[in-house]
Amino acid sequence: MNIECALCGSPLTSMDTILGENKLSDGGILCNKCLNKATNVNTDLVSNLANYSIIQIKSMVLNGGAEQELAIETEPFETIQIAQPRIVETPSQSIQFTYTPDEPSRLDEIKDQIVATGAKLSLFVDSEVEELVNVLDENEKLIAIAEGKYLHNNLEGIVVSTERRIIFVDKKFFGGVFENEFPLQKVSSVQHDTSLISSTLKVYTSGFTAEFKLYIKSAAKNFSDAVQDYIGRSEDQIRLQQMQAKQQQQQQQQVVQQSPKPQQNSEQKAAPSLIFEQLERLGKLREMGVLTEEEFAEQKKKLLAKL
Fold first, then answer.
1. Low complexity bias located where (predicted)?
2. pTM of structure
């Protein structure tokens, strides 16, 4: 049974699952917050959510300009600077203005990659995230990240993985950085375990086991799943895998772009009898005190929109 939002990974509440209206075609479920973000990008989702998979939803949200809404919650607002025009003289001596907007910084790229992993980080590791600019090579892509404690020395920071290595980073309060890395080529296995409120990640190498306590219950499993395909791979194998992954991503984007938009017709509308039955259920839940007036009104509006 799904207990986490397929898009943001936050635990699902009874409001997210009570009517079964947030379910995707591949079985994933969206929380109401992510559903609202998605429907703001594509209004067709109000009545056709069950026809879309999580891959299509993520593509819609990212391509719809919602990256900033899904970014790390503690990310500060940045001042937008407009590039100054550069005067260019043509052979005919006429003057034209050419604008050269700033390209995304390396830190922007890293933060976008963090967003793509779906990881949730607190404001306490902002300095470690910024330090990744100095830790990662220019061509390294981040595929997993989690916040936690390195049990070998009890330092707290972030453990990240690229397609080549697993790295633990701790930015000390009075300056300086502790960094320890484990090349995936030398890693024999990565295992995870889950407790009541946290999880444990173990990285096995020749003669040494690195153990991390992660502060989110699902973090260790998500991290382990992300790195499994890269364990024990040589540099040549990794490059080949990167090319294959890029081609697969391009094919998925083409499928999404070429997919015809669902037509608005009477066949896509829910049967009135079903809508009225669900409205009756909502009314009983409100009378029982399970739903507040605001929650009742919100769910009622969604149902009436399908008539």
1. 251-264
2. 0.47
